[in-house]
Specification:
With 190 residues, the chain is mainly α. The protein has 8 helices and 3 strands; from the N terminus they run H-E-E-E-H-H-H-H-H-H-H. It folds into 2 domains: 66 residues, no CATH class; 121 residues, no CATH class.
Amino acid sequence: MGDEKTIRQLIDAVIDREGGYSNHPADRGGPTKFGITQQVARAHGYDGSMRLLSRETAAAIYLAAYWVDPGFYAVWSRFPAVGEELFDIGVNMGTGVAGGFLQRCLNAFNLQGAHYADLTVDTRVGRVTLLALDAFRQRRGGDGGERLLEAIRSLRGARYIEITEARPANEAFTYGWFGRMVEMLKARAA
């Protein structure tokens, strides 16, 4: 699952980006604390007031639902920055969206199947996706990871614009979503 200290730092950074309690009228997620929606909290056994959700409970949910279950830890072990990006996208947009971004980008980089077979974009980071990622890494090395990261970030930014165009009420969040991306970029550079 990765280095425990690093994982805790990733989770702490997400919790810090997400902030405390929120129930913004334009947010379809409803009551949220530390970025955990009430629906997700309930699905993971928390039945108290969202205002009282502890940081420790939020961290446990992040570890299980956004790191281990979607397999982003396995991506991180191959390309740490890509795994971190997928984790954050999973928190912000859903783990399936993040997994789909990875699969789509791997398909775009496989030279029409010359390096590895096209993936079915099923949004799950499973054995076949990891095998393709390994083949990509073997062919492209560290530079490949940087390009894969930028391709995924490009899809992320495009999705923010698409979401906002489809639902203008999301303009309340768009600037902050891009700020989140900038903040992550600065943190990587530090």
